[in-house]
Design brief:
601 residues, alpha/beta, TIM Barrel, 2 domains, six-stranded parallel sheet, two-stranded antiparallel ribbon, 10 strands, 40% helix, globular, DNA-binding, sigma factor, ASL1, transcription regulation
Length: 601
Amino acid sequence: MADQPDIATVVAARAGDPAAIDRLVAGYMPLVYTIVGRALEGHADVDDVVQDVMLRVLRNLGDLREPESFRSWLVAITVRQVRERFRARRGAPDALLHEDVRDPGADFTDLAITRLELSGQRRETAEATRWLDEDNRELLSLWWLEASGELTRDEIVEATEVTRQHAAVRIQRMKGQLETARAVVRALNAQPACPDLRLLTVPWDGTPGALWRKRIARHTRDCSYCSPSWNNLVAAERLLAGMALVPIPAALTGKVVAAKTVVGGGTHLAAKIGLGVSQKVLTAALSTVAVAGAATAVVVIRQDPPPSTPTAAVLATQSTAPRRTPSATPATASPTPSPSPTPAKTSKKPVVIAAKASKKKGVGVWEFTGVKAALADVGAGWYYNWAPNNDSVPGPSGVEFVPMIWGKANVTDGTIAQAKKESEGELLGFNEPDMGGQANMSVEDALADWPKLQATGLRLGSPAVAYGGDTAGGWLDRFMTGATDKGYRVDFITLHWYGSDFSDAAVNQFLGYVDAVHKRYGKPIWITEYGLMNFSGSPKYPSDAQKVAFISGSTKGLESRSFVERYAWFGLPAVGDSVDFGLYKDGDSPTAAGQAYKAAG
């Protein structure tokens, strides 16, 4: 942890001790600045938000009942102010200034690279943060501090006001997006540049964003020149370990002015700093407020850990566990008979697994070499790709494609017409609307758009929640209650599930959740994503034997439940960023998990 004031200082500051208040603000200003700066990357309003945070902290310090919780309280206030600024900015023109006139402290990535002298993979990771979605930048600002030892997971949970499990899932998915962004940064910075990538990015204006992150990442996975961008990515936690807070830039320290401040009923003289290039003077309703700063964090820079083992970057979820080469692949050729008449030594005949076809069995699919052959080989009855059409991943004859309306932005006449045209009778609703970084929709927004999906006349699956499908008052429960009240149609319930317990108990944990959701709503069930991944601990992925045991037990249980109509493993490809959990390395090379899934049905 950084050298921050102790509880005694908080108690004294709460009582109005001017020296203690100065130490408290000076000690915690770097933490607030780091959270706000990274969350609001590239905008000139960082100093305003820091100012607002410190105003609120000092104005309400007297009401803090538990001094030991000061830091958690401070972080929670900081996150709320960041969110308020995000909300205000959504309805206003983009506040990103031209680089020639931007406050040198406004571009937090440039500042971090310069002030912390980042190089190598640390620099790549810092540059990659520019490519994150808005919600993930906020979460990154907290997780970055957790990884560097400045915050605890409990403080992140309290600040984000979600459960510990939800926080773990959100962090894991943010890390997945960060790893993808790191590969994008590498590919764009490669020398000499990839000719195909240069051609792809001709229309790009150079501004990092979600659309171009996805386009460039897709290219890197398919391009033999760019695919090494995914190799030897040192786990972000290892890169951040030991790094201190980013020092406050000079523009934020400003001119110190004496002023009277009311805190906890006491009056004292304190330092008041100007913020930003305009040297703003802090004011508050309580006459004046103290904001002391100018503290500089000690920066400890370590060499990058040796990139001995690459890490896995997952499409929708991320782990920092080293990649493991699948230990078993099927042999398809018959052994050559021994010319010797004596049976003293014979080689074992390779095991060739025949696929069991099942209408229930499906997979989540994204582009990779051999996708059509793999879909046929695994015996899948259906598949989906989180999209309204399968143009990028056409399947073989006889394997049903199920379209999805992913989120609110996809509820357009054109997209819905496309999905209806592609469907053989079913349509999947929104993808993880309860998750920031995914569809991220309120129940009210989802219900408002539902009639448009219902109008297709297709059998319609509920929005696929990331967790808590069996929870009273949870996202899915509120959606289903609203749909019933409005007379909307939901033909089956769609679920996602990921387990972090890799023991034999995992099968019953998973099936128990499926049973509980069915009992709650009494409708058919589709599980459109499931697997074993530990989002917040180690090991991140199960062994091959554990994956095989879980797949065998879970698919047997799903096949035996008449109310389970479909299930889909996440996911089919076991290449690049998905080698630790995918099923196929190419069209006819299943992993150990792929062999088990192939045999299921």
